[in-house]
């Protein structure tokens, strides 16, 4: 039982014939010199036929067998594809044929590993003109349990990164040669796309360092009319288009509505001025956004998704169509000092305060019960947003007044005028 256990542990092969012949000697492994991805195994013997196998050391042994005839060179190239990745192996050579079986003990090479490349980690994209600068990180390589084995490739940079891009309708494929750097400028690359890195070493390849280049579209609902200095809400939705690539199939474009996409409200302070930020927000689940903003003078607004980058994502910019919000003068306060109840002969002060604090002329009106119309009483100066008029309550009765506030120009655009609420006055 002990012998069987050791045979399983060290990957030995059961022999099918008497082991009467001397075993081969000096089994060595090295990289093939013709540039092909192959392990060249060499040995010494007396020109006998040989059997070559691969043994796993604390790894499963692959089912690779090669027979070399008598008189052939004592060397053979085993393709790297015959070695499972990320394991420890050695090559075993014995004398034997496919018909007569193994006739000697196994001679073995040194143990070597088939560790693949370290998968690239987080990747980011920075727009550079019409291109993009891709940068990525590479984690620390895991511990090498067979240091300085005969298959180790010498040098500080044995891993290469091949940039690959997939676009809608096309296949994922390389767009340039491999590099040992962790950054690369890719010219003429605009969303939508899927960027990946194929890390390669002498044994295998791994995919990592993914960046989604997204396109965006945005719609917006902007109030057409709003009072000056009153909070308003700008609402809408952002829809992204991302690229999905599956193995051996063309890449496709897919709609996405993620949360956390930044959204900027832009405006022109004066006609013809450049668009500048007025408010900011971000999307919630489903791509929706609701941005509160204090309304100012009459202005156009457009809502934009700025170009932004975070780990694994680069979003292209988009904007809604401009929409105009006309502002209306807001009545902050209006009434009578001391309240609306007066005695005949009292001095009565009627007043109003408006926003913005503008300078113009307001009209004080009273309601004529007989004609059922408002009648102009007095033009009252409005200074710094404040107007007031002192008069004597000469008649007893119930009266109604109001101020008419004209429109104004502010920053080169008209604002709508307004009237105060009805101001009742009771004189007894």
Descriptive report:
With 428 residues, the chain is an all-beta fold. It folds into 4 domains: 2-113, Immunoglobulin-like, CATH 2.60.40.10; 123-147 and 158-211, Immunoglobulin-like, CATH 2.60.40; 214-328, Immunoglobulins (Immunoglobulin-like), CATH 2.60.40; 330-427, Immunoglobulin-like (Sandwich). Helices cover 2% and strands 53% of the residues. It contains 1 helix and 38 strands. The longest helix has 8 residues, at 2-9. Residues 1-17 have low confidence and may be disordered. It comes from Kribbella steppae. Residues 1-17 form the signal peptide. This is Fibronectin type-III domain-containing protein. Keywords: Signal.
User: Share of helix among residues?
Assistant: under 10%
How many distinct beta strands? 38
Name the structural class.
Answer: mainly beta
Main β sheet profile: 9 strands, mixed
- CATH H-level homologous superfamily name of the largest domain: Immunoglobulins
> What is the CATH architecture term of the largest domain?
Sandwich
Provide the gyration radius in Å: 42 Å
Give average pLDDT, whole number: 92
User: Number of helical segments?
Assistant: 1
State the end-to-end CA separation: 121 Å
CATH class term of the largest domain: Mainly Beta
Protein name: Fibronectin type-III domain-containing protein
Organism: Kribbella steppae
Signal peptide: 1-17
Keywords: Signal
């Amino acid at each position: 039982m002990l012998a069987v256990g050791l045979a399983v542990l060290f990957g030995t092969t059961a022999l099918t014939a008497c082991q009467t012949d001397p075993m081969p000697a000096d089994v060595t492994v090295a990289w093939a010199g013709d540039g092909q991805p192959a392990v060249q195994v060499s040995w010494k013997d007396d020109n006998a036929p040989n059997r070559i196998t691969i043994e796993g050391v604390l790894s499963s042994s692959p089912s690779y067998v090669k027979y070399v005839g008598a008189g052939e060179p004592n060397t053979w190239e085993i393709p790297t594809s015959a070695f499972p990745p990320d394991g420890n192996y050695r090559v075993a050579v014995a004398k034997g044929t496919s018909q007569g079986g193994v006739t000697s003990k196994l001679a073995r090479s040194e143990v070597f590993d088939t560790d693949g490349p370290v998968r690239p980690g987080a990747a980011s994209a920075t727009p550079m003109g019409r291109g993009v600068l891709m940068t990525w990180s590479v984690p620390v390589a895991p511990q090498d349990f067979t240091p300085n084995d005969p298959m180790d490739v010498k040098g500080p940079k044995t891993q290469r990164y091949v940039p690959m891009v997939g676009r809608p309708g096309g296949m994922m494929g390389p767009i340039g040669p491999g590099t040992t750097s962790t950054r690369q400028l890719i010219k003429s690359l605009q969303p939508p796309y899927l960027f990946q890195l194929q890390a390669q070493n002498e044994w295998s390849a791994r995919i990592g360092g993914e960046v989604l280049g997204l396109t965006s579209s945005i719609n917006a609902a902007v109030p057409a009319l709003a009072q000056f200095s009153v909070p308003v809400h700008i609402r809408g939705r952002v829809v992204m288009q991302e690229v999905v690539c599956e193995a051996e199939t063309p890449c496709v474009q897919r709609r996405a509505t993620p949360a956390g996409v930044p959204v900027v409200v832009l405006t022109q302070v004066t006609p013809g001025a450049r668009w500048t930020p007025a408010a900011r927000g971000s999307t919630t689940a489903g791509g929706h956004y609701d941005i509160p903003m204090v309304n100012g003078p009459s202005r156009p607004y457009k809502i934009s998704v700025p170009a932004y980058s975070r780990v694994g994502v680069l979003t292209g910019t988009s904007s809604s169509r401009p929409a105009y919000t006309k502002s209306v003068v807001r009545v902050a306060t209006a009434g009578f000092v001391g309240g609306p109840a007066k005695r005949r002969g009292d001095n009565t002060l009627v007043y109003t305060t408006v926003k913005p604090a503008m300078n113009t002329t307001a009209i004080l009106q009273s309601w004529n019960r007989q004609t059922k119309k408002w009648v102009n009483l007095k033009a009252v100066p409005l200074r710094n947003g404040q107007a007031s008029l002192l008069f004597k309550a000469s008649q007893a009765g119930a009266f109604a007044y109001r101020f008419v506030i004209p429109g104004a120009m502010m920053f080169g655009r008209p604002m709508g005028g307004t009237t105060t609420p009805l101001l009742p006055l009771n004189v007894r």
